[in-house]
């Protein structure tokens, strides 16, 4: 669900008001709150087993092939670009340990990739909203795993368009195939699916 302010794109005052609301409400509402250029997004359900297991397995597989000093991080904090008015929380962030040594949110431009496991309750947030926001934030690679269908996509090569930056390259995959995320290839075999 998206709670949209009066104007589709918000100014600094609206952004700070939304940021304050999210900080006050996050601990008292189920799920996750994020801020996009369209407003506050509320993914109403907390992630379940298949979602969390997918994130854990993908993170572990990536860390086995990445060099020392890089992490496939699944925790907090968020990534934030106050100038763009966006706060997001990727399920997995490929980031250098050195870029995590900051107070507050991570700079999204420090991420090498953002990885999302599609939520059963709000799939458009991952397939539409984050596909729009991540290139705007300068995240060079965005990967989507969809346990509803057992498919996904790797998006890369940010380029300008009349409606803002977008990913120019999309490589779709089905679970079981090897995929390349940045410079690293991992298997998608054995990832769980949501029950019908």
TrEMBL record:
InterPro entries given in the database record: Nuclease_put_TT1808, Restrct_endonuc-II-like, Uma2
Keyword list, A-Z: Endonuclease, Hydrolase, Nuclease
Lineage: Bacteria, Bacillati, Actinomycetota, Actinomycetes, Kitasatosporales
Protein name listed in UniProt: Uma2 family endonuclease
Protein source organism: Streptomyces smyrnaeus
Domain of life: Bacteria
GO MF, any single term: endonuclease activity
Stretches assigned to the Putative restriction endonuclease domain: 31-154
């Amino acid at each position: 669900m998206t709670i949209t302010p009066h104007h589709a794109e918000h100014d600094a005052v609206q952004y700070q008001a939304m940021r304050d609301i999210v900080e006050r409400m996050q601990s008292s509402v189920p799920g996750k709150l994020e801020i996009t250029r369209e407003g506050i997004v509320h993914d109403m359900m907390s992630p379940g087993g298949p979602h969390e297991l997918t994130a854990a397995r993908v993170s572990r597989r990536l860390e086995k092939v990445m060099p020392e000093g890089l992490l496939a991080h699944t925790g907090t904090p968020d990534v934030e670009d106050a100038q763009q008015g966006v706060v997001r929380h990727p399920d997995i962030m490929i980031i250098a340990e050195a870029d995590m040594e900051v107070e507050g949110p991570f700079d999204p431009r420090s991420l090498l990739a953002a990885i999302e496991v599609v939520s059963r309750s709000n799939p458009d947030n991952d397939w539409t909203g984050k596909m729009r926001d991540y290139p705007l934030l300068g995240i060079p690679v965005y990967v989507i795993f969809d346990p509803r269908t057992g498919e996904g996509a790797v998006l890369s090569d940010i380029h300008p368009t009349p409606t803002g930056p977008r990913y120019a390259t999309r490589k779709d995959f089905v679970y079981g195939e090897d995929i390349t995320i940045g410079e690293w290839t991992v298997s998608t075999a054995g990832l769980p699916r949501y029950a019908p």
